[in-house]
Specification:
By secondary structure, this protein is an alpha+beta fold. The chain folds into three domains: about 60 residues, no CATH class; about 160 residues, Jelly Rolls; about 200 residues, Jelly Rolls, CATH 2.60.120. It has eight helices and 28 strands. The strands form five sheets. Strands 1, 2, 3, 4, 5, 6, 7, 8, 9, 10, 11, 12 and 13 form a 13-stranded mixed β-sheet that branches. Strands 19-18-22-16-25-26 form a six-stranded antiparallel β-sheet, with no helix packed on it. A five-stranded antiparallel β-sheet has the order 14-28-17-21-20, with no helix packed on it. The longest helix is centred in the N-terminal third of the chain and has 28 residues. It is elongated and about 95 Å long.
């Protein structure tokens, strides 16, 4: 052996000894563990390792064979034929290699020299560390190839944290997988396989993903994941823009939005955007027909990434049920996508609703109804007012406006962001609402832009049978209450609180108009 080769072998032995001692003392970190695994995957390091383990075993046997009076017992040679690599590949557990003359000499010197015995004791302590990893090595290099391990949990060996489990509902895990607990960490590379139920993940980047079974999903990084099968819905706040979901050959990059992704049986993928924008493109740049497609609010497409076919499909808002609630964001009055208004009001009057704050909220956006979702022909204004109920909350007729707290305008040039059937704009500064009475209204509806009025005449004329047919409400888990009254004014009076009270014919609906709305979050969730 050349001097260089001996030097490299010596360095390798020293490194193996160091790593094994680190593992034995519990001080080994993740990087060192990966290094040790890498070293043991090399044939030279494996042979050195087995040789050191053999010496440690023989030395341990030597010290064990000492009687009460300290007399050494000659055990004789430990015989055992060597095992070639071909035998290992067939699953045969290896025997320890036969001792060489130099190894026998080492033991002979130890019997005669107390100093050498002390040194051997030290080596045995190192050998204990080698033995601790012996089952790992045997498992890695001699385990029969026919035995395939099955995953037993959605959380693998901890590495970089990619996401956290923040909600689990009615889950049933696929065979071989078990669920985690709330706030449990999912490391990069972790798999989730649901037969049924709902699992919500909060990624480190801030993105939120709700997976509904049956589905399979993998956490790829703190800001990306792969949908292997099934469907998901995702909310991506501004700080997590760029969050990416892979589905087969498709890559969906979020630009700050709410979107859903579903893998169909024919391996096509449905992408729906409730709000904002995503970019869908080929994951494999070598595809003969690469593509990149921008998808915007209230749009839905079906994509076959294998041949770059993209077809428009009907937008389905039900894919987002519960997404806003579990992201900590709520829309008080949400008109469904595509709804057409039923009232032509030439007076540009104000229309809106009363509500009561039961738990402090923060209003972040104001919105107005957009008939048909096609933008505006005139200027509309959303206003948020504080309200004095005059000590008689059961009688809305004697209420008056206290102050206009926020106001935003929506124009044909700048209509705002379409979310289902309403358009929203963010306030420059959010408005915190403490407990009390409030009203949200919108002004400017006329012949060019229709609102919805739930009076009998309008219902019969436009086949709108009930408020539940066109609008949903969200009280933020009880943070606000809808008191069942609407407000309107006779004429356009921008700085005036509307005093006319209107309820549906049965007096029960909380939203007789589609007009003004707002988005909010909880101050102390």
């Amino acid at each position: 052996m050349s001097q260089n080769a001996r030097g490299e072998s010596s360095q390798l032995i020293e490194r193996l000894q160091y790593l094994m001692l680190r593992r034995q003392t519990g001080e080994m970190d993740e990087k060192e563990l990966r290094e040790l695994e890498s070293l043991l995957s090399e044939s030279v390091a494996r042979e050195l390792y087995i040789k050191m383990v053999y010496e440690a075993v023989e030395l341990a046997s030597l010290l064990a064979a000492v009687d009460e009076e300290g007399r050494r017992i000659n055990l004789g040679p430990l015989e055992g034929p060597g095992v070639g690599w071909s035998e290992r590949s067939q699953g045969t557990a290896p025997s320890l290699p036969a001792r060489s003359g130099s190894e026998k000499g080492l033991l002979h010197k130890a019997k005669r020299s107390p100093l050498m015995a002390v040194m051997l004791i030290f080596l045995i302590s190192v050998g204990g560390a080698f033995l601790a990893l012996l089952p790992v090595v045997f498992d890695q290099f001699w385990k029969p190839a026919a035995i395939i391990r099955q995953p037993t949990a959605i959380i693998e060996e901890p590495r970089e944290v990619g996401a956290y489990v923040v909600r689990i509902e009615n889950e049933a895990w696929e065979a071989g997988f078990s669920g985690g607990e709330l706030e449990q960490q999912l490391s990069v590379g972790s798999h989730v396989r649901l037969q049924e139920g709902v699992l919500q993940l909060q990624f480190v980047s801030g993105a939120m993903v709700i997976i509904e079974g049956p589905a399979a999903f993998r956490v790829d990084s703190p800001d990306s994941g792969e949908l292997i099968s099934g469907s998901l819905a995702s909310y991506v706040p501004p700080e997590a823009i760029g969050f990416t979901v892979i589905a087969g050959g498709l890559e969906v990059v979020d630009m700050g939005t709410e979107f859903s992704l579903k893998i169909n049986e024919d391996e096509t993928a449905d992408v729906q955007v409730r709000r904002g924008e995503v970019v869908a493109r080929n994951r494999n740049s070598s595809v003969a027909t690469p593509f990149s497609r921008e998808i915007f609010s209230n749009q839905a497409v079906r994509i076959d990434a294998s041949n770059a076919e993209v077809s428009v499909i009907e937008f389905d808002g039900s894919a987002f049920d519960g997404l806003l609630e579990h992201s900590g964001r709520f829309i008080a009055y949400s008109t469904r996508a595509g709804v057409i208004g039923n009232q032509h009001d030439p007076r540009n009057a104000a229309h809106g609703h009363d509500f009561v704050v039961q738990q402090a909220i923060e209003v972040t956006h104001l919105g107005v109804f957009d008939s048909g979702g096609d933008g505006f022909k005139s200027v509309l204004t959303a206003e948020l007012w504080s309200r004095d109920d005059n000590g008689t909350p059961e009688n809305p007729d004697d209420d008056r406006g206290i102050a206009k707290l926020a106001e935003l305008t929506f124009t044909p040039e700048h209509p705002g962001e379409l979310v289902a059937g309403d358009r929203f704009k963010a306030l420059e500064e959010s408005v915190e609402l403490p407990l009390g009475a409030y009203t949200i209204i919108a002004r400017g509806y006329g012949r060019g832009d229709q609102n919805i009025n739930m009076s009998t005449a309008h219902l019969n004329a436009n086949r709108v049978t009930s408020s539940e047919a066109y609008m949903d409400t969200d009280d933020g888990n009880g943070a606000i209450s809808f008191v069942g009254t609407g407000r309107w004014s006779q004429m356009a009076q921008p700085e005036t609180f509307p005093t006319n009270v209107h309820a549906s014919d049965d007096g029960t609906t909380a939203h007789p108009f589609a007009a003004g709305t707002f988005e909010f979050s909880l101050v102390n969730p």
